[in-house]
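Record format v2
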Amino acid sequence: MPQFDPRFLTPLLFWSIVSFGVLLVVLYKYAFPPIIEILDVREKKIKESLETAERLQNDAKAMMSDYENRIRNSKQEAEAILEKARVRSQQIVEETEKRTRQESERMLASTRQEMEREKIKLMKEVRQETADIVILATERILQKTLTGADHQRLINESIELAAQSFKPQS
Amino acid sequence: MEHNPLEHFQLYKIFDLHLFGFDVSINKAVLMMWLVCVTVIVLFLSAGNRVRLVPSKLQSLAEISLGFLKNMVVENMGEEGRKFIPFVATLFFFILFSNLLGLIPGFYTVTSQLIVTAAFAVIVYLMSLIVGFIYHGFGFLKILVPAGTPGWLLPLMVPIEIVSQLARPVSLAVRLFANMTAGHTVLGVLLGMAISLGFLIGWLPFTFSIMINGLEVGIAFIQAYIFTILTTVYLGDAIKMHH
């Protein structure tokens, strides 16, 4: 095999070590550092970004739960207010109903009293009127003035008569 | 038409050079090593030039490959291994570009020379020994005794472990060399057939040679990867000594 030609052993050995050495030194001194540095920088940056993102996410979560709490509280508050309003309106309705009932009862009672009073007054008037008419008619028929006793008896009879005809239908 | 598929592995002296009585003449393989070095340096310098947080395509490629190698080192050697990243990365890119540039017709595959792969394998193995002794002192010799070995088996186990240790650099060197040589030999055979069989049947081996060439690109990456990951495993063994 041509590779085992002993004439080329020392040149190849020497030059492969020298070339490799030079390559190693140049790469180690000039070429690798900036690239390895940027790799580290990027690694750090990515790590930082991830941490920031995580922190922001946690913040957002906290905010979210805060808002949810607030919404829940306001909902409860609103419900409480609504409940209070319902109770209050119920009260108002009941009070109004009660007052109206009392008022109407009171009005009914006073109307009844008034009517009673009117009836009595009317009956008195009717009695008086009837007495006058009876007296007048009797005077006409008898053409003379009755005595006091006659007068009274007649009046009473007429009143009885009138009272019977004026008796309420109840 | 006679065609030797191993012919393109033959080297010729281009420039005669001697250093301390040793022959260090320049040949095609040496020129290729220089080309590999220049290519890797240019690529990484332009990738590392004006690095930005949002990378350019070249910077991104350099970052991805370095990040990949960094993970490999840390995985096999632990956090202690971080200082070996430049060495491991240089090794990887030197072998990778030697494999890849060698695929260009007319160029030479440096890694198809056993002496070159052996040099790297021995360097890696010696390095793992040195690291082991630095980290564990003479306790590192316990690597020759697998955990839980009964005392009476020691005379048998220690020689076996010594052989398995010595097999490491040998297998490392031969694996890369054989893969590169075999691939190029197959390509040489196929292309030789394509030429000698003529137009009517020759297209068949020619088509194969195209497919094998694609395969060789994959093998170039895989072999560089295997060499590098075994390097990190051996160094990791030396650091962690879990046997």
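Chain A has a mean pLDDT of 87.
The interface with chain B takes residues 1-5, 7-17, 19-20, 22-24, 26-28, 30-39, 41-42, 45 of chain A (CB under 8 Å).
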